[in-house]
């Protein structure tokens, strides 16, 4: 059984008015992630700028396309965020030329190419087209280890589960620390992508009315 959150938090759907807070939180959540360290070359000068620029471009495009995002709040402070790409529109962000141009200018050709290859390799592991994909999901470092991740994930399950056209949720991680966490919450490993030296694991959680065998 998943552990209950140590403190009650509120879930709200986010709009572009939360763009700045969303970018700041996701930058802190992702800047030390192994996959990002490889994609944007943590050993080369300017790494933090490239991560910030990537997060900024992804968040901006997400809200420009009016895609859904859920926020977890504690005392009106945003402490967790999930960007959601629904089944019908999940390829829109990286196919946008505006997004690609912003990425090329801010992160360079190599970082842009690496990110696109990684993102499309992850999508290729999805069991079908009819899934929600979580391109970015994070909890503020100051609030990690307090079970807020469980509350955000459970809210995501409820939100995505209301879409009867969706067969479930796909997410990925290159951080081995999270493997047990996702397994405990009903995710099944369905694939693996090499991101340089990092093994990026792809997970799928079927909606309650769907079995993995029915979408394989």
Automatic annotation (TrEMBL):
GO MF annotation: an example: acyltransferase activity, transferring groups other than amino-acyl groups
Keywords: Transferase
Superkingdom of origin: Bacteria
InterPro entries attached to this UniProt entry: Acyl_CoA_acyltransferase, GNAT_dom
Every N-acetyltransferase domain range: 136-189
Official protein name in the record: Acetyltransferase (GNAT) family protein
Lineage: Bacteria, Pseudomonadati, Pseudomonadota, Gammaproteobacteria, Pseudomonadales
